[in-house]
TrEMBL record:
Residues that coordinate or bind S-adenosyl-L-methionine: V39, S69, E87, D133
EC number(s) on file: 2.1.1.-
Annotated protein name in UniProt: tRNA 5-hydroxyuridine methyltransferase
Transmembrane segments: none
Organism: Clostridium grantii DSM 8605
Purpose of the protein: Catalyzes the methylation of 5-hydroxyuridine (ho5U) to form 5-methoxyuridine (mo5U) at position 34 in tRNAs.
Chain's gene name: trmR
Amino acid sequence: MNGISFDYITEYLNTLIEEDDEGILEMEQYANENNVPIVQKEVANLLKLMITIQKPMRILELGTAIGYSSILMSRSSKFVKEIVTIERNENMAEIARNNMSKFDENKIISIIEGDCLKVLEKLEDKYDMIFIDAGKGHYNEFFPHCLRLLKDSGVIISDNVLFRGMVANNDLLIRRKITIVKRMRTYLMNISKDKNLITTVLPVGDGVAITARRN
Ligand code: SAH
Ligand code: MG
């Protein structure tokens, strides 16, 4: 049990997802060997589906790591023209740049190195899709900026919102994660109760929230 879904369900669902892109598989292997927390298979597939439906031209990502999800998104639809991704860890950014030189053939991804909050404060152009996948304790601070940077028809996707189930169940909660978990609960409450927004929280991967403006 990952605290979120029964193992047999996750295992079964994963048998339905087939990734045959060599580059993506190579990065998956690297991430597994080096404990880099890339999106799980089911979340990767959800991102691809969302991009196929939404056809975003411009995507903003918080948390690049080795560039796995941004490269995956760049390959999901021909409509994607630009991806900006933010990463504060120099080593990660360097690995991501290498991966991008190999796997981002159309050169649509750019990395901004720095802390998400500092970078977000300076961004002005709007995006069709924003993927929040960095600094689990800081989604509440990132979110107002993400809303400001989101086109009216845009979608915000937040990863790891159930955090190994701890967000939903105190029995799973470990002491050193209490602050993060409390903040995540506040985050989910806020994006769920906001009358101007519609949010669904899915028990997929480590928990994914999808948010749009009501229209
Ligand atoms: N989206 C990636 C995984 C990102 S893992 C993928 O699925 O392939 C989260 C990354 O966010 C880590 O590399 C970490 O260094 C970075 N990070 C964490 N907090 C951050 C912050 N406040 N600003 C910028 N990057 C941050
Ligand atoms: Mg994640």
